[in-house]
Amino acid sequence: MKYSYPSLFEIHPTAKTFLDLGCGQGFIPLYAAARGLRVDAVDIETETPGPLQSIPTVSYISADLKNWKPVKKYDIIVAHHSIQFLPKEYALQEFLPALCKALNPGGVLEVFSFTPEETLNVPTKYTLEEIVQAIGDLEIVKQKAFSYEGMHRKLGPHTFFELHIIAKKKI
Ligand SMILES: C[S@@+](CC[C@H](N)C(=O)[O-])C[C@H]1O[C@@H](n2cnc3c(N)ncnc32)[C@H](O)[C@@H]1O
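^ thats the input. predicted complex w/ S-adenosylmethionine below
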């Protein structure tokens, strides 16, 4: 995956609040906090990721995204390789629309996930069109399906097939 989250802060330079869904080790929340944002970071893991443990402006929320939705509004929301773990119908009809509602005016949503061409055994794969339709209330800033030669931690060299979408809520 080619991370591009620094560019989100160029798209929304006055952003103050940030939500990371499926935050993993917490490196993106750490980056956002270092830029002065207040961050909520969600993951299914019960333990707060080490890098986030002493950061007062980051709140870690241990939750299963299959039954968790934002209760606050945010300026930037990212879901990097986490909606692949959700049932497709729930993701497209409930979860992604809920993220759109949880954006402040001018807010930015970024999604990375796998497309159907991906051969890894991930639970759910999406086409660009499915995601674009699900976030129909937002203005698309970037939409791209792409592949690249990378290194899978178990399989070794692998061709990844992914999608990347950035979208913005009207002011
Ligand atoms: C592939 S990692 C991506 C981590 C990070 N977003 C990144 O891009 O490096 C997927 C993350 O989603 C989390 N996850 C998987 N299923 C989840 C669920 N149902 N609810 C919340 N988090 C989940 C995993 O624990 C893991 O940290």
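Residues 22-24, 43-45, 64-66, 80-82, 85 surround S-adenosylmethionine (CB under 6 Å).
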